[in-house]
Design brief:
Blueprint: H1 2-13, H2 15-39, H3 44-65, H4 70-95
Length: 96
């Protein structure tokens, strides 16, 4: 919990800068996850995973553009990165 609090304080102090960098990070990680998901086929499961990755990344982008509270933006960033990373790793493991 201390790590979360330290990262949040840092994020809150430099909200605009970190938001811009995090948009790039979330978009790139989501794009990589989408690519690997689609490399595994076009079944319902892959389409659902693709929808999940795109939706979570878009929610983060919306929170930044709507200039919501830094805590909400930070939490959606964490969720976006976790979902993209987990689905990326699962699909890489399935692929190779």
């Amino acid at each position: 919990m201390r790590l979360y609090n330290d990262l949040y304080k840092d994020f809150e102090e430099l909200y605009v800068g970190y938001s811009a960098v995090a948009v790039i990070l979330s978009s790139c990680l989501g794009a990589a996850a989408a690519m690997v998901i689609l490399m595994n086929g076009h079944d319902f499961l892959q389409m659902f995973q693709l929808f999940l990755v795109v939706a979570v990344c878009m929610v983060y982008l919306v929170t930044v553009l709507a200039q919501l509270k830094p805590k909400f933006v930070f939490n959606t960033l964490i969720v976006s990165l976790l979902v993209s990373t987990i689905l990326l790793l699962i699909n890489v493991a399935m692929r190779y």
